[in-house]
């Protein structure tokens, strides 16, 4: 199933920006759609966005539309999430996950997550 | 898009069966056969247990099964084992290129 490793998390003030990365290995990254999912501390999972295998289509949850941008570099086997205008409520562990077959809402491989803390 | 409803907790003794429900609407669970279930142990990433309502990925024990009736999907865990104790989340395609998760259920093995 391969491996996914997120990075780029940390503490940031409200209104600032942060870019997360997700490095993929062990599978042909360019063949798969990818997702970002987050989990606020002690809370449930929240789907954020999906990007097609070739980057041709991207869809976002209303909660992050217009603030977050998902992209990928298939030559580097890396997925990105650019997060702008961060809010306190964006504090969460952010996971990247491999698509099992859109629109199945099935994610068959997950990273371990990276924690983003938005606080003044 | 509202989160899917799940009971906050469920429990059973080793060897017993337990069923967790996931209730949505005709716009998500009831409208598509795209319900998945995930198991999440504390501090770990979620693991896909069921997809397409009732299908199991390779490696998932057949003690885990899924079904759907109307706007409610269900996950049944049979022959409960200690390692089944975890949080369980359902998810569904919600149309218009959106995915919605359930609020999660904490399964306790007594």
Please provide a written account of the structure:
The complex is a heterodimer of chains A (120) and B (110). Chain A has no helices and eleven strands. With 120 residues, chain A is mainly β. Chain B contains no helices and nine strands.
Quick take:
The complex is a heterodimer of chains A (120) and B (110). By secondary structure, chain A is mainly beta.
Please name the defining characteristics of this protein.
heterodimer; A: 120 residues; mainly beta; seven-stranded mixed sheet; four-stranded antiparallel sheet; 11 strands; B: 110 residues; six-stranded mixed sheet; three-stranded antiparallel sheet; 44% strand; globular
Question: What is the H-and-E element order of chain B?
Answer: EEEEEEEEE
Task: Please tell me how large the radius of gyration of chain B is.
Answer: 13 Å
Beta-strand segment tally of chain B: 9
Q: Can you tell me the overall shape of chain A?
A: globular
- Main sheet attributes: strand count, strand direction, barrel closure of chain A: 7 strands, mixed
Shape of chain B: globular
Give Rg of chain A in angstroms: 13 Å
């Amino acid at each position: 199933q391969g491996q996914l490793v997120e990075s780029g998390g940390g503490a940031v003030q409200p209104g600032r920006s942060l870019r997360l990365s997700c490095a993929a290995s062990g599978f042909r990254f360019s063949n798969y759609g990818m997702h970002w999912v987050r989990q606020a501390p002690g809370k449930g999972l929240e789907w954020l966005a999906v990007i097609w295998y070739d980057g041709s289509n991207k869809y976002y949850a209303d909660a992050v539309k217009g603030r977050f941008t998902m992209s990928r570099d298939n030559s580097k086997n890396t997925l990105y999430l650019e997060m702008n205008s961060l809010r306190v409520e964006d504090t969460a562990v952010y996971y990247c996950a491999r698509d099992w077959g859109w629109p199945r809402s099935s994610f068959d491989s997950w990273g371990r997550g990276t924690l983003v803390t938005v606080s003044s | 898009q509202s989160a899917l409803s799940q009971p906050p907790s469920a429990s059973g003794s080793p060897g017993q069966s337990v069923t967790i429900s996931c209730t949505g609407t005709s716009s998500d669970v009831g409208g598509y056969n795209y319900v998945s279930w995930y198991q999440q142990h504390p501090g770990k990433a979620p693991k896909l247990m069921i997809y397409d309502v009732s299908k199991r990925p390779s490696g998932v024990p057949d003690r885990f099964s899924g079904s759907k009736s109307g706007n409610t999907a269900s996950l049944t865990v049979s022959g409960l084992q200690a390692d089944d104790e975890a949080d369980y989340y359902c998810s569904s395609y919600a149309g218009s290129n959106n995915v919605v998760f359930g609020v999660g259920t904490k399964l306790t093995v007594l």
